[in-house]
Amino acid sequence: MSGRGWIGRDSQELRRICLRSRLIESRKDSSKPMFDRSSRRYRPMVLALVLLTGPGCASMRRNAPSPDLRPCDEGFAATADGWMLGMRHIRPANPDPGKLPVVLCHGLGLNGTFWTITDDHLPSQLAAKGYEVFIVDMRGSGASHRVGLPGKINKVLRQTPIREVGARDWTVDDEAKYDVPAILEYVRQETGSERINWIGHSLGGMLMFPFLEFSPQANRISNFVDMGGVAMVVDTPDIRDMRRADKGLRVLSLGLSTGRLGRPMMYGRLPGLEMIDRFYYTAANVDKRTVSRFYGYTLEDPGAGALKQLDPYLWTGHMLSADKSIDYASALDRITTPILMVAGEGDIMADIPSSILTFNGLGSADKSMIRFGRLDGHLADYGHCDLVWSRNAPKEVFPPVIEWLDVHQPAVASTRQSLPAPAHSTPQGR
Predict the structure, then answer these.
(1) Other Cβ atoms closer than 10 A to 216
(2) CA 182 to CA 207: how far, in whole Å?
(3) What is the bridge-based pairing of β-strands 83-90 and 75-78?
(4) Of 70, 138, 265, 425, which cross-links 421 as Cys (Cβ 3.0–4.6 Å)?
């Protein structure tokens, strides 16, 4: 679905629902910048007002001009521990009965719109190839909510800058133990398929490691595409910066919603935030409209419990369980599911050395890795979210991912003869 002209309507929606003031005049030409040179001095004042009066604005998201910008609330997957996970089902015009459904899972601190804030996005390309596509809002994000009183309280808090109750109660372990089975059951009820293809970005891929290692339902994941998710990290200056950023984020999130505080930055970011932005994306690779939508529609609270679990990961280099009793990185050899790892040469959070370490630890006999960067013949060095958001991703990243999925569908895979591993299946260090 084309996103041409959305940003103008997005801005009008936010002004109507959140600001309810005349501080920002409506633009007749949406192609012009909202703040021209003469008005830049007012930007801090406007941002401060928005931060104080309307950082929540859950209504703005629900009333977004396109389904691609709205929470996943077409249906809900019920978890065994009391969460309702928002689901969105993108149906292909010409379904291919030989292809298993695809679930797209976002990373920590984001929601399901992560996959759909750009034009010609991955879900639309998958649907065009005949795949039933399911996008999920994981716990703590988007339309997902707790059942009972906590959910009712949080529904109110989502309109404020105050952190939701129970943010410390769930971890990455819970997502692997409860969310993934609930999603599998939802897709089975919708399609009748017991098995699926899973595409996860960042933590949406990382949480699949413990699931595939220890879940009795691991065989229901037919194929796994891991985009920017690693179970081991190499100690680098960037990782040290991430440790400091993680500490600051945990302190800030003690009482405030970091996701909703950041939402008004769809209009512009305060000085110095480039140091944080670079962990998410490479500015030269991603359109400004995409960045605006990221802050306005995709950014969420990361979840204090999950952040606490990942803190040792940044220090020890290994992904551990929340109680530190299980080293998921050391158990990668238990995984036998076919896996494609997608890595960006410009990724800071899941750099190439960390991706290679994780890849080499996987026990699957059918594993491949594709690196995206200039040295690999691509137009740019892809950052963490660039793998999905880059203006070049629809032409450079998505086609080989879909091609890998196509040849791994049961009807095709069962007819394949034993072939030599592809050239990119064993990554080479440089």
Answers:
(1) 7
(2) 14
(3) antiparallel
(4) 425
pLDDT in tens, 348-407: 999 999 999 999 999 999 999 999 999 999 999 999 999 999 999 999 999 999 999 999
Rounded to whole angstroms, what are the CA distances from 339 to 25, 373, 416?
50, 20, 17
Backbone angles phi, psi at 56, to 5 degrees: -80, -75
CATH class of 70-237+303-417: alpha beta
**Mean pLDDT over residues 115-119, rounded?**
97
Residue 126: name the closest of 152, 171, 162, 89 by CA: 89
Which amino acid makes up residue 229? G
Asked if 316 and 358 touch (Cβ cutoff 8 Å), the reply is no
- Smallest CA-to-CA distance from 207 within 298, 71, 292, 103 is with 103
pTM, two decimal places: 0.83
Residue 4 binned pLDDT confidence (cut-offs 50, 70, 90): very low
Please report, as a single letter, which amino acid is at residue 63: N
Three-class DSSP category at 142: coil
Alpha-carbon distance of 51 to 269, in angstroms, equals 12
C-beta separation of 357 from 270 below 8 A: no
* Amino acid sitting at position 121: H
Contact between 180 and 211 under an 8 Å Cβ cutoff? The reply is: yes
**Alpha-carbon span 284 to 305, nearest angstrom:** 33
Pair of tokens at residue 205 = 């891929």
Domains of the chain: which residue ranges? 70-237+303-417
| Identity of the residue numbered 68 | D
Contact 337, 223 (CB under 8 A): yes
Residues 262 and 295: beta-carbon distance below 8 Å? yes
